């Protein structure tokens, strides 16, 4: 990684003071945050959290944003009760911590969530988005899960699946130009591999001047120069979902 002392520079100082519009529910063996639009819909989006877990207000803010755009949104606890990373934790222990939370081993949980969305919410068309750790999980799901329509991987850790590019579903990749843990060389290589191997629609977009976490970790007004790119990233995410769900 580019920054071994602090391998995931999500700025927790930009954490929202946000309570959420949805509710916490039990979905099989895991808990989840669910928010539904006022009008009935058969479209849903699974939101996969970053290392800070399913209760992070920033992630719930994005889930609620999806709901205002007409989607049932669900953010499950993909750590299955294990503690999320805390800003006060020692980054030297991060590699050991993340080994017990594998973004490529969430299939059991995804199956439970898909069943819940179909049986309890009436969802028929389901997509997925994810941030950082969750972005890697999105790439994993786009490679193998036949029940999802599309995915948006937002600064997903490319190195986790750097040798796998035969996506099953249209996938949108969002990256920040100044991301300390996802160097632009990795993004360029991803584009090359996708061009060689991918048979479905995809897009890779780099947002100028933006750091890791910009789409969901920053308030829109915290840095005036970043606001247009934060809003653009969120709009692009919604537009991609609208196109394929």
Automatic annotation (TrEMBL):
One Pfam family, short name: DLH
Recorded name of the encoding gene: Cmbl_1
PANTHER family: CARBOXYMETHYLENEBUTENOLIDASE HOMOLOG
InterPro entries documented for this protein: AB_hydrolase_fold, CMBL, Dienelactn_hydro
Domain annotation Dienelactone hydrolase: ranges: 30-244
Organism, as annotated: Phainopepla nitens (Phainopepla)
Protein name: Carboxymethylenebutenolidase homolog
A GO CC term assigned to this protein in UniProt: cytosol
GO molecular function: hydrolase activity
Main location class: cytoplasm
Keywords on record: Cytoplasm
Subcellular location: Cytoplasm, Cytosol
Family designation: Belongs to the dienelactone hydrolase family.
